[in-house]
Amino acid sequence: MKRKEMIEKYKETLAGISKANPFPDNGNHPDLGVAIDMLIYEYQVRAGERERTDTYGGIPEDFDWVGFGIDYQTMISKEVE
What we know:
By secondary structure, the chain is mostly helical. The protein contains 4 helices and no strands. α2 (11-20) crosses α3. It starts with a helix and ends with a helix.
């Protein structure tokens, strides 16, 4: 799965993340490309791949972290190829 495909697949969740996390300096909301980075960050923290330095809201309580993890691993393996 490519990054663009992930953005499309998780578009609804990413829109919620964008809405919940306006930039502090100007109040604008991040685009979906930035929102996918936020979601990836939250996944990496949950997976123990990095330490938390920030927290991003807007992710549904029932978000499928396992399914996202599979998609994320597929995406990064394609980037390495």
